[in-house]
Write a structure and sequence with these properties.
Elements lengths: L3 H6 L3 E7 L14 E6 L3 H4 L9 E3 L5 E5 L4
Amino acid sequence: MYTIEDLRKNNLIVFEHIRGSHLYNLNTEGSDLDIGGVYIAPNNLLYGFDKYYQPQVMDEKHDTVYYELGRW
């Protein structure tokens, strides 16, 4: 399974944006920053060499979520 760090390290992220309360300027002092985006799967997934397709990659708290281009 890929992690957010893997996506960043391999330059797979093609689009990134702020989402949640910060997007609508509704953030309060305790608000966390939510990030969303799109990544392109590595070639081994696209060519079928790796059997596990990962449609999204997220952190533990779901504050940062990236969707694979085919799912997005």
